Amino acid sequence: MKILDNKIPSGPLAQKWEHYKSSVPLVSPANKRKLDIIVIGTGLAGASAASSLAELGYNVKAFCFQDSPRRAHSIAAQGGINAAKNYQNDGDSTYRLFYDTIKGGDYRAREANVYRLAEVSANIIDQCVAQGVPFAREYGGTLDNRSFGGVQVSRTFYARGQTGQQLLLGAYSALSRQIASGGVKMYNRHEMLDIVTINNKARGIIVRDLVSGVYERHSAHAVVLATGGYGNVFYLSTNAMGSNITAAWKAHKKGAMFANPCFTQIHPTCIPVSGEYQSKLTLMSESLRNDGRIWVPKKSSDQRIPEDIPEDERDYYLERKYPSFGNLVPRDVASRAAKDRCDAGFGVGETGLAVYLDFKDAIKRLGEDAVRSRYGNLFTMYEKITGDNPYKSPMRIYPAVHYTMGGLWVDYNLMTTIPGLYAIGECNFSDHGANRLGASALMQGLADGYFILPYTIGKYLANEIQSESISTDHEEFDKAEKHSRDINQKLLNNKGLKSVESFHRELGQIMWNYCGMARNKEGLLEAVDKIKKLKQDFWENICVTGKSNIINPELEKAGRVADFIELGELMIYDALNREESCGGHFREEHQTSDGEARRDDNNFSFVSAWEYIDKETKQKLNKEKLTFDEVNLTQRSYK
Ligand SMILES: Cc1cc2nc3c(=O)[nH]c(=O)nc-3n(C[C@H](O)[C@H](O)[C@H](O)COP(=O)(O)OP(=O)(O)OC[C@H]3O[C@@H](n4cnc5c(N)ncnc54)[C@H](O)[C@@H]3O)c2cc1C
Q1: From 193, 236, 250, 426, mutation site for ligand 1 pocket: most ligand atoms within 8 A of C-beta
Q2: Is 162 in the pocket of ligand 1 (CB under 6 A)?
Q3: What is the pLDDT confidence band of residue 469, given thresholds at 50, 70 and 90?
Q4: Sheet of 36-40: strands edge to edge?
Q5: d(CA 480, CA 206)
Q6: pLDDT value for 276
Q7: Which atom of ligand 1 sits closest to the CA of residue 193?
């Protein structure tokens, strides 16, 4: 087993980052101009990183597979972004945001990273306001806040239900400025297919131009992955349809360890699945739980419409079970509670797999116009999809896959186990432990891109100033390009009878049924078997139509699904190995008498960091021990 060095600076927690910043080696402006950096992904993490690095003077090449950075999945983020500004004077502080995040993550995140995140959170808001992001304001003009799950303060900044879109427009304008001035060369519609390592350092990438089908080589002194999360391994999720694991998975196969792959977030408030034909699920933002109340009928299999069910026959089960936090318990807790009620026969709607999210009281208290001004676009979206008017009758919601806490293992510098390869935003594992609190992903992505990576990457690059520009004629580029071409050719040549979509759907069913909201040993072992068969079936029977030298979405998707299948297998091994329940990872064998997650701190207070050996060998587990100097590990309680 390898000892993983997380490179956390010494000294008191609250001074680590300050001390790091003042002692980290710097790269002079003249040398920055000689250094090339590749950034894959231009969502919030990637766009903020690419623009900040170019602003510093590095030569940046940025890549995304969409036709514009503005279409990154980040644009879908609805509810808001956290920051410890304490504008509400309700007791918030850097320490409280740090503490809430560590506790919310069920004590499976690193203290030092999380503290740094809380520290820089306030700067993000200032940066975004300066860019013109139209955060909601109170009547007097000051920025407004609302609450998200797992906290008792209001620290979430928002722009109606479109916060991600507005933040991305801010980051995109910063990026555009750099594209126009030549600091960033932008490659839209390019998909990274492999990472190139030379003498064990990240030195470049292989991409395919998705329009012409041409394979390209790009070299750099450092490579940054900002490629988002892998929730689509479940097929049905709230993620954008294109979100995928390929870049991170290819890096994993070249030596970057993959951390906590089984830590998946199931979001409690999504529009329920309504039929087999569905390929996408829609989130109803957690912010709705500020004013919406969740309930089911007290009588099981109650067929009455909600309006006909009197108050005393409604079970507001979150308020009943968790009086301190009520409807704003964290996502993992709220999701399990919904599943528990539905499994017990109290679910509503045609499938019985739904609970109500009701705004009746909020509308009575605040008026319909006030509710519309806070959540109008979400209500419209709900009505468009379901045909029901949530101002008149409660929304029906059910948990769905939403976010992945696992990702590439990174140290305090955000560097993976491949020197010179960084991972930021949702594609790393770093800050959210076993359960991310709402509105913390945008905070982390922008913290990484605007405020952390621009310092930490300099530490590595300060030692690279002697390296000349790297030639793409190196044999490692030849090998990597050939490998990428071979995979695509194999997919095209196979001429099987099953569609890519059918394999993806089958994979999703295995993952959801056996490695979803609840997991157990027997089911996970069965899933290993099923997934191995699925992998074999995929490579024997896949049918990919079209050619490689033109736009071919089937080919793109086939490569992504092939990687998802391999990742799914690793997720199952990770879930099997972690013989405890924590956050979103709920092993049915490990629960308290009242059905809450039971951690095993003696044996599992570590980050699982999986190392790829080869395709025949089971992957190797390495561990990073988690130590807690500031917080006491307790049974998480929101009662
Ligand atoms: C519906 C929804 C609502 C959400 N609401 C909130 C919220 O209110 N608050 C909050 O904090 N979080 C929210 N989240 C989570 C948050 O949106 C994401 O975690 C975050 O936006 C991820 O940002 P990112 O920059 O890491 O990745 P992304 O935005 O996913 O960007 C990934 C980028 O990588 C590129 N890419 C990927 N693979 C490749 C490849 N192989 N080659 C080239 N380019 C590649 C893509 O083109 C894209 O540019 C929400 C998530 C969902 C699904």
Answers
A1: 426
A2: no
A3: confident
A4: 184-187, 59-63, 36-40, 222-225, 421-423
A5: 7
A6: 80
A7: 41
* CA gap 484, 625 in Å, rounded: 36
Q: Which residues are annotated as catalytic?
A: 331
228 CA from centroid of ligand 1 (Å): 5
- Where does residue 228 fall: left (phi above 0), alpha (psi -120 to 50 degrees), or beta otherwise? left
Furthest CA-CA distance within the chain: 75
For residue 180, give the DSSP letter. Answer: H
Q: Residue 616: its pLDDT value, please? A: 64
SS percent in the chain: helix, strand, coil, step 5: 40, 15, 40
Rg (CA), the chain: 24
**Percentage with pLDDT > 70 across the chain:** 100
Is 80 exceeded by the pLDDT of residue 173?
A: yes
CB 472 within 8 A of CB 204: yes
Q: How far apart are CA 161 and CA 8, in angstroms?
A: 36
Q: In terms of DSSP bridges, do strands 314-315 and 201-209 run parallel, antiparallel, or are they unpaired?
A: unpaired
Q: What six digits make up the tokens of 505?
A: 């759907």
Residue whose structure tokens are 């950075």: 69
For the stretch 142-151, pLDDT in tens is 999 998 888 9
Q: Which H or E run contains 124?
A: helix 111-131
Q: Ligand 1: which atom is nearest the Cα of residue 425?
A: 26
What is the pTM (predicted TM-score) of this model? 0.96
Q: Which of 442, 446, 453, 557 to mutate to test the pocket of ligand 1 (most atoms within 8 A of CB)?
A: 442
Q: Is the CB of 170 under 6 A from ligand 1?
A: no
